[in-house]
Amino acid sequence: xxxxxxxxxxxxxxxxxxxxxxxxxxxxxxxxxxxxxxxxxxxxxxxxxxxxxxxxxxxxxxxxxxxxxxxxxxxxxxxxxxxxxxxxxxxxxxxxxxxxxxxxxxxxxxxxxxxxxxxxxxxxxxxxxxxxxxxxxxxxxxxxxxxxxxxxxxxxxxxxxxxxxxxxxxxxxxxxxxxxxxxxxxxxxxxxxxxxxxxxxxxxxxxxxxxxxxxxxxxxxxxxxxxxxxxxxxxxxxxxxxxxxxxxxxxxxxxxxxxxxxxxxxxxxxxxxxxxxxxxxxxxxxxxxxxxxxxxxxxxxxxxxxxxxxx
Length: 311
Fold this sequence. Notes:
Strand order of the largest sheet: 3-2-4
Radius of gyration: 32 Å
Shape: elongated
Distance between the termini: 86 Å
Number of strands: 5
Number of helices: 11
Largest sheet: 3 strands, antiparallel
Number of domains: 1
Helix content: 55-70%
Order of helices and strands: HHHEHHEEHHHHEHHE
Structural class: mainly alpha
Oligomer: single chain
């Protein structure tokens, strides 16, 4: 397989995976609010596992392999695969650099005390707390710590880092950036619900504590915070807390698990047939060359017969 063919195969697989990812994001966008109302914030947040699952499933080997090459819908891009892959890599590097700069700006603002409660870091997350200047009571600060510890316990910083990685890898796909923003919203709502399940009597105090919180204008790609963008975030969180408790049983988790399995299988099975490549032939010995053989003949004198024994 030549380098051009390999680059074309990589580009085709990546474009198909991006298309499958976009379809999965559209499905999640349509289902997240109804699922939140019916089964709670945690199930709605769990829907965001579908896009990466579908992305990976679409990269698996296709279920059908043909002897003849199938029709390629990405033939135009494939004909310029090296150029397209180079532009893709440059865009990924630029977006990754922008995310790193955003993280650095947030940390600089945190050192100046200009950010609210948050969790920073991926592999060793740290909780940032506001200064004890009398804004929060001791009980309110305890609620804030409970919320941020819940983020750490659930592995939310790693989920946000994965979303940032998809933003860099799929930088040209606007649905990926929209999904990353809405995933953070659903993550915060799920974290609120988890804290209130453990402390149901603190619902009113929790809402009042949120109203005191300082919203971060800076982006935080590798960590957890509540950005001050879109519909007023505190309104969204307080409204979710005041909503009636949804159905709490096995229906939601079972539906979510079935959706993950179905989405992964559909993404894998819907791939176009692949082309059968002949197995590589490796020649360990080259028998086509003529070999010269040298022969050395050595003549030795005949041995004398032993004397006959005496009678």
